[in-house]
Amino acid sequence: MEQYWSGSAINKNKGMVENLQHCGIIKSRKVVEVMENIDRGLFVPNGVQPYIDSPFAIGYNATISAPHMHAACLQLLENHLEPGMHALDVGSGTGYLTACFALMVGPNGRTVGVEHIPELVSFSIKNIEKSDAAPLLKDGSLSVHDGDGRQGWPEFAPYDAIHVGAAAPEIPQPLIDQLKPGGRMVIPVGNTFQDLKVVDKNSDGSISIRTETSVRYVPLTSKEAQLKGE
């Protein structure tokens, strides 16, 4: 819930990434490279200053997370986003993190975005088509689907990495089921008070869960409840 900088002094994607490094959010070269290559400015609505460290409304009672949260999630998942791995982005919104994941797992991997607002699915596909992840969308290793993310996307399971971009009251069992042994899920959990949980599936299928930080996300709910703002 912190804001690491504000104002319009940061007006380029590279400056945003440098700030995230300076603040200690980005710690690896791999995350620097993907955030430099996928320009956040392509994934926000018109009129929004994309490089400020703030979440923004994207319509339909949904938001795009602040840059520091995207960077933190990429750091937590980076070892599970190696070339050839499978990644699932639940509540994929404008497609920003989905595109980052796709670049990291590459054409021999599989990246799936799931979003239950059809207009955001269309918006995210248009955004990705303008980005460095466009070839992966074209070759089919990256896809974005209209669906209830609480059910995951079984077609390409199991997943090495699962990211959930909205807060669930509890961790949905289908997402745990679709996590590969050795895989990791990052998911905000809670109602009024939320924690970012790191869920690791051990090689024997058992689950380890730890709390990374306190967060504030929109709720992971049905499409109908989201549109009503519930």
UniProtKB/TrEMBL annotation:
Keywords: Methyltransferase, S-adenosyl-L-methionine, Transferase
Class of this enzyme: transferase
GO biological-process terms attached to the record: methylation; protein repair
GO terms for cellular component: cytoplasm
UniProt xrefs under Gene3D superfamilies: Vaccinia Virus protein VP39
Catalysed reactions listed for this entry: [protein]-L-isoaspartate + S-adenosyl-L-methionine = [protein]-L-isoaspartate alpha-methyl ester + S-adenosyl-L-homocysteine
InterPro entries the record matches: PCMT (IPR000682), SAM-dependent_MTases_sf (IPR029063)
Record EC number: 2.1.1.77
Domain of life the protein comes from: Eukaryota
MF term (GO), any: protein-L-isoaspartate (D-aspartate) O-methyltransferase activity
CDD domains for this protein: AdoMet_MTases (cd02440)
NCBIfam families listed in its UniProt record: pimt
Family as reported in the entry's similarity comment: Belongs to the methyltransferase superfamily. L-isoaspartyl/D-aspartyl protein methyltransferase family.
Protein name per its UniProtKB record: Protein-L-isoaspartate O-methyltransferase
